[in-house]
Design a protein that fits this description.
An 8-stranded mixed sheet has the order 4-3-2-6-5-1-11-12. The chain has helices at about 20-40, 45-55, 100-110, 115-125, 140-145, 210-215, 220-225, 235-245; strands at about 5-10, 75-80, 85-95, 115, 160-165, 170-175, 195-200, 205-210, 250-260, 265, 270-280, 285. Strand 3, helix 3 (about 100-110) and strand 4 form a beta-alpha-beta unit. About 30% of the residues lie in helices and about 25% in strands. By secondary structure, the chain is α+β, with helices and mostly antiparallel strands. Helix 1 (about 20-40) runs antiparallel to helix 2 (about 45-55) and helix 2 (about 45-55) packs antiparallel against helix 3 (about 100-110). The chain starts with a strand and ends in an 11-residue tail after the last strand. The radius of gyration is 17 Å and the shape is globular. The protein has 8 helices and 12 strands.
Length: about 300
Amino acid sequence: MTPTIVVHGGAKTITDDKVAANNAGCTAAVEAGWAVLISGGTAAEAVEAATRVLEADPTFNAGLGATLNSDGEVELDAAIMEGSLSWGAVAAVQGIRHPISVARKIMDDKPRLLVARGGERFAIDCGAEMCKKEDLIAEEQWQQWKEDREVIDRPNTIGCVALDASGVLAAGTSTGGTTKQQQGRVGDTALVGCGLYADNKIGGCSTTGDGESIIPVVLAKTAIDFLSGDRHPDEAAQMAIDALVSKVKGEAGCILIDRQGRVGWAYNSSHMACAYMTAGQDKVAAFTKKELIPIRNS
């Protein structure tokens, strides 16, 4: 099986001054995950490694740099799923530097979704990297919240999908939610079938966008279902976004890898930061608009 990895930095509007940072961040994430894959690591390990890079980069809405809720605090959601249908998730947690790692520990322990204090308590018990909740507030997000400034380059959920040499797929998502969301609000990111899905027999998907639009159409599972009949992930991703648009209002995007290692993505926002790597490439392909770098069909 050909190892493959793809990440997204969110379906959103990316202003010209943020293009380089989005490309650099997504490239670094792919490189971290790719290093795991080519050294014989698992898809879940690669997804965790890549997502941790994005969670540590204030360019993106996950971990450090996450949006602030109605109380001016960072609340984080994250989930990971393997193609065996094992999964783990946290939601509305504070003071956790890398919620994707906590989600993976939950998956390895017993699949479930832990929220707020329950998720934080589990993170402490399993030795996760904790911090003061204020340490995850980036300066740009704080100024925007304090000044009630309109956010042009609206941040959005990040994610990753990987296929390892053993043919195992994994998907992950991580987010700080939406700007000034109500305290305790949970979107699609931590919900299997909505924010992510992975099935070794079909493919893996990670989504991004308006959670209240993604949830009712079960976007990640919908995209996976469209892979049936050997449909290319690029077409399946577009069909999933078209299905969302036909039923609800809202912006969204998704990335896909099928069991053959083919990559696809689609979105209906202005931009979507993405990057991918597979065998045969000499470097990571990174982009903020789909037409800039076409996907390989092999």
